[in-house]
Amino acid sequence: MPGDETSSCWSCGTMRAVHFCSACGKVQPPVPVDYFTFFGFPQKLNLDTAALEKEFYALSRRLHPDISAQAESQEREWSLQQSSLLNDAYRTLKDPIKRTEYLLRLEGVELEEQSKEATEKARTTGELKKQVVPPDLLEEVFELNMHLEELRTQKKMGEDDPALLEEIGKAKLSLEEKHDALLAELKSDWDKWDKAVNGGAEQERLKVRDHMVDVLNRRNYVQNLVRDVNEALEG
Amino acid sequence: MASDQIVGIDLGTTNSLVAYMQGETPAVIPGEDGLNLVPSVVALDEKNRIIVGNAARKYLIETPERAVYSVKRLMGRGVEDIQEELKFFPFRLADDIQPGEVLRIKVGERTYTPPELSGYVLRQLKRNAERFFGGPVTKAVITVPAYFNDAQRQATKDAGRIAGLDVLRLVNEPTAASLAYGLDKKKNGIVAVYDLGGGTFDISILKLHDGIFEVIATNGDTHLGGDDIDNLLITIALDDIQGDLKLDVRRNGEAVARIRKAVIEAKIALSSEPSVKLDVELPGGQSYQREITRDAFEQLIEPVVQRTVAPTKQALKDAGLKPEQIDEVVLVGGSTRIPKVRQLVEDLFGRTPHTDLNPDEVVALGAAVQAHILGGGSEITKEMLLLDVTPLSLGIEVAGGVTDKIILRNSTVPASATQHYTTQVDGQTNVAIHVLQGERELARDCRSLARFDLKGVPPMPAGLPRIEVKFLIDANGILQVSAREQRSGKEAQIEVQPSYGLTDEQVESMLLESYDYAEEDFRQRQVIEARRESETILAALAKGKRNEAWRALTSDERRRIETLEKALVAVKDGDDYQAIRKGIDVLNEATMSLAEMMMDTAVSTALKGKTMDDTDLGEGPQAGHPVAKAEFE
Q1: What number of helices (H) and strands (E) belong to chain A?
Q2: Contacts B385 to A, Cβ<8 Å
Q3: pLDDT class for A24, splitting at 50, 70, 90?
Q4: Residue A124: closest CA among B452, B432, B464, B443
Q5: Contact B218, B147 (CB under 8 A)
Q6: Chain A: nearest CA to B300, how far in angstroms?
Q7: According to the model, what pLDDT value does residue A235 have?
Q8: Model confidence over A123-160: pLDDT tens digits?
Q9: Separation between Cα atoms, residue B411 and residue B396, nearest integer Å
Q10: Is the pLDDT higher at B208 or at A24?
């Protein structure tokens, strides 16, 4: 639970919790903490999302600007900062992928930029995007891209080739299966990570970390391919 | 009634309302005319005085160049955004508006910005509330379409300030509606609010959980509503008139205004009738008639109604929900009275929507609830908390004209995010920050919110500076951006001044203009209304004297009443509000027994009824105002 900070409340002087004073309830100036600490959770990847939501609602009732709407401007400013931090933390932690990426970033790892913006940017600027095709996917991706290109051309001409659509559909299905498999792999990594954190197994922790980076990059790559396929089919 | 009452305002495209918490229930405050809805119409009368609301409507027809409606469509927009609008709305723009500049609308010989015109509507609502409470009202919660962008929100806030209101919070309309919906139902579940108003469409999906109203996703179209249906009907009428009567009245403001009025009435009637007859008298004596069946009407509006489908599906997708997972669908906005719209909603969600709330009033009632929460709340609202989201992604332009999204749509607000950038050229000392809002990949397809320069970056090789851009969206959905070069500590902070907005100085001067008169206005209004009340009670008393009951009074009583009557006559035409008020009160009290005796007779209503119900001023709602009750099940 948040509440280990040993300093006193600006308003009543009593010892305060991290976000608000446990005695008088006043919102406190934000202190720089990571999202896990903000919620009072350990830096683990298996997270009880029901408990997270409960804590989010409870903290919202303390920190939201609506609560301090009648307060002095300094207190309202703190409330704005604290509740934006709360919302950012909640948004990040409740999503398993974002949570993993965030934790890896806390570990100093830079993930490959796979976002749509990055792809678009690379396309417009002609820069090479830092993106490595996973070797086992090389052949499949090459073929898929050819099919997609063909589909786009056909769509422009107003043609329709059921055989091509079937090919693409099959490729999409296979990608989705891969995506699910990678997610399962990631989940087992979470267990390993949490165990390593519990047992203080530093070597093991670093090994799992690097493995997660690899799995995440592959998973993001596959997800983007699925997105491209969907767009080509719809567009 | 305490004068620090915070009111809730629904500033609508077609109608506006002001509401407050009457004990445990939100209630709409009626205008002097006893009506809850104040048409969002602003006009100049013969003496160049600003007229707002029902009284302004006649000018739409008589002197259309001196009246405006649907100004909300212009809020926070530039001249290049509204070309489509100009085809259908008789907005007369000032001639010299540059792209990127705030719009100015001609009304008669004068020009006004959209926030000023909306400010007049707000000021009217403020007055209605002041009249109701008998004291100044300075704080308000104002609702905006959930899908309003930053510029449109800023413009609304400016309008509030111009009207002399401290806008404590902008609340999204569908979210406000959900507050009114959920107030007396301690229900948990997923609710979809489908809000089709006069000019805007919103769809919001909320999770209600022990008093927390958490918006999960929102979507919409800020230029879609009943206005579009009216315009379709007007176009048909104009074509008919040209074809059948060989008359081109497109440029005739009065004719178009008459047609508009007639088609709106026809549209409303078609919600309950299978067919209506349109009959418009045109200037010049000819008349235009046409029968419209509901079938034909529904076919005609199908494309407009269909435009709500994609945003609704997107909101469901963003929420990660299937239609069958929605526990209740709430309808908001006048256009949801149209059976075709209800049918569409039913088809979309596979369930009958909840229609018990008055779709015209529910947003204002919800705003009153939120105002109450912000004011500290009470037993009924103390567990209630609204968690809203930003409807559109926010980002900045990066090399290649690409949008780099920093905060994604549907993020709970307040929200913040930090992103790091660097320079492209060696020795670059200025970095241009271009703030964007929207979902598109390329900067040019997004809404440009603001541009600013981070100046004075120490010259460094390209790629070395580390520029941190921080976005913070507050609970109103309004963005603040700051940028900092971390190696040098150089900082640039801006409150995003939207490209089509007013500067603080402009708002300040408009505000002062209206303030100069505000105090005086309020005082004069009090006097005028007290005078009117005196006349009503004096007239009632004159009637009472002819009643048998008068003879039944003792001569002392009669003498006392007549003395007080003379005293009131003596002060009522003066400017001393307190004196008139006192005169009314003592006479009211002295005639109490007379009124009671007259209870059995038909005349009694003249004295008791009138003085009690119609002409109150300066007392709280317990004095029997015609207060609209919230309609809940």
Answers
A1: 8, 0
A2: 60-61, 64, 66-67
A3: confident
A4: B443
A5: yes
A6: 28
A7: 67
A8: 555 454 445 667 777 778 888 888 888 888 888 888 87
A9: 17
A10: B208
Domain encompassing residue B93: 6-224+308-387
Which residue of chain B is at minimal alpha-carbon distance from A77? B474
Alpha carbon distance B136, B132 (integer Å): 10
A117 → closest Cβ in B375, B403, B417: B403
- Quick one: residue B410, left, alpha or beta (phi over 0 = left, psi -120 to 50 = alpha)? left
Angle, vertex CA B590, rays to CA B587 and CA B596, nearest 5 = 115
Output the domain CATH number for residue B241: 3.90.640.10
- In this complex, the residue of A60, A69, A120 whose CB is nearest that of residue B387 is A60
**B235 and B382 housed in the same domain:** no
> Most distant CA pair in chain A: distance in Å?
75
* Residue B630 counted as domain residue: no
Q: Final residue of a domain: which of B338, B368, B387?
A: B387
**Catalytic residue check, B72:** yes
Please give the model's pTM, rounded to 2 decimal places.
0.81
* Region at B565 (left for phi over 0; alpha for psi -120 to 50; beta for the rest): alpha
- Rounded to 5 degrees, φ, ψ at B311 are -60, -40
Instruction: Identify the bridge partners of residue B431 per DSSP, sorted by sequence position.
Output: B454
Nearest-10 crossing angle of helices B226-245, B253-269: 120
Pairwise pLDDT comparison (A157 vs B363), residue with the higher score = B363
Separation of alpha carbons B70 and B65, rounded Å:
14
What six digits make up the tokens of A178? Answer: 């891969």
Binary contact (A65, B414; C-beta < 8 A) = yes
Catalytic pick among B116, B130, B195, B230 = B195
- Supply the ipTM of this predicted assembly: 0.84
pLDDT at B179 over 50: yes
- Are B294 and B232 found together in one domain? yes
B524-574: pLDDT as tens digits: 767 777 887 888 888 888 888 888 888 888 888 899 999 999 999 999 888
pLDDT in tens, B129-146: 999 998 899 999 999 999
**Spatial separation of the C-alpha atoms in residues B363 and B196, rounded to whole Å:** 12
| Residue B220 shares a structural domain with residue B230 | no
B320 touches chain A (CB under 8 A): no
Does A210 score more than 80 pLDDT? yes
Q: Which amino acid, B10?
A: D
User: Nearest-CA neighbor of A130 among A58, A220, A56?
Assistant: A220
User: Cα(B330)–Cα(B181) distance, rounded to whole angstroms?
Assistant: 8
Helix (H, G, I), strand (E, B) or coil at A33: coil
Sign for the pseudo-dihedral over CA of B596, B597, B601, B606: negative
Closest CA to B214 of B480, B410, B474, B471: B410
In the set B116, B130, B158, B173, the catalytic residue is B173
* Residue B471: CATH number of its domain: 2.60.34.10
Contact status, residue B360 vs residue B165, Cβ threshold 8 Å: no
Neighbouring CB atoms inside 10 A of B41's CB total 26
**Cα torsion through A149, A153, A154, A157, rounded to 10:** 170
Is B332 among the domain residues? yes
pLDDT tens profile B438-457: 988 888 888 888 887 777 78
| CATH superfamily, with its number, for domain A1-94 | DnaJ domain (1.10.287.110)
Cis preceding linkage at B414, omega within 30 = yes
- Bridge-based pairing of strands B212-221 and B275-281 is unpaired
Bridge partners (DSSP) of residue B195 are B202, B332
From residue A228, give the alpha-carbon distance in Å to each of A131, A135, A216, B403, B606: 16, 19, 18, 19, 76
Residues B314 and B426 in one domain: no
Total structural domains within chain B: 4
Residue keyed to tokens 């990594």: A189
In the sheet where B42-44 sits, what is the strand order? B50-52, B42-44, B67-68
